[in-house]
Amino acid sequence: MSQDTRPEPKIPKPVTPQSLRNAALRYVDRFATSRDNLRSVLMRRVHTSHHHHDTSIEEAVIWIEELLDKLEKAKFINDQSYAEMRAGSLHRKGNSVRVISMKLKEKGLSEENISKALDTLRLETDSINLERDAALILAKRRRMGPWRAAEKRAEMKDKDLARLARAGFSYDLAREIIEAETVAELED
């Protein structure tokens, strides 16, 4: 298409307390979220509206905070339960405790919520070592170490070690997993 025939971009409607409420309810209906993350989502709408309609940002911040308080009171958002759910999900994917903590911080969760979530994760998994369990999950998912074909192991050793290091695991743990001869050796 030539630039002349391109349709004009749609200009969004100005935000109102009701439009922010509707957007927030649609968002929490689709996604689990933290208070801070939902605030960021709504503030993007406010900034867009401010750009096109000169909406008052200060007034919109007040609307958002009132809305967040109501949603928290109605238990639509709960930072602690979100942190626990997200930590469990990330651990099952093979993320290290360091990466889990970082990703939860990115969502605006407090140190207290993060440490409680990690404590809950330790209790739920009955694990002595969350790091080791997560590293094993990742190695299995990515077919590293004893899960890799024997003829390719030596050739891929350095790449596998680097992959585990980038995932946030210590060098010693990565070496233990990559250099293991069999899966049974790791499960002991």
List the keywords:
188 residues; mainly alpha; 70% helix; elongated
Describe it for me?
The radius of gyration is 23 Å and the shape is elongated. The model has no long low-confidence stretch (mean pLDDT 93). The protein has helices spanning 17-30, 35-53, 57-73, 79-92, 97-106, 111-125, 130-141, 150-166, 171-178, 183-187. It has three domains: 17-73; 79-127; 131-187. 70% of the residues lie in helices and 0% in strands. It has 188 residues and is an all-alpha fold.
Bin the helical content: 55-70%
How many helices? The count is 10
Amino-to-carboxy terminus distance: 62 Å
Helix-and-strand structural type: mainly alpha
* Coarse shape: elongated
The fraction of residues in strands falls at under 5%
What is the gyration radius calculated from CA atoms? 23 Å
Q: What's the number of domains? A: 3
What is the residue-averaged pLDDT?
A: 93
Order of helices and strands: HHHHHHHHHH
Largest sheet: none
The total beta strand count reads: 0
pLDDT below 50 for ≥5 consecutive residues: which ranges? none
Q: Summary?
A:
The protein is an all-alpha fold and 188 residues long. It has helices spanning 17-30, 35-53, 57-73, 79-92, 97-106, 111-125, 130-141, 150-166, 171-178, 183-187. It is elongated.
Produce the secondary structure layout.
Elements: H1 17-30, H2 35-53, H3 57-73, H4 79-92, H5 97-106, H6 111-125, H7 130-141, H8 150-166, H9 171-178, H10 183-187
Helix pairs in contact: 1-2, 1-3, 2-3, 4-5, 4-6, 5-6, 7-9, 8-9
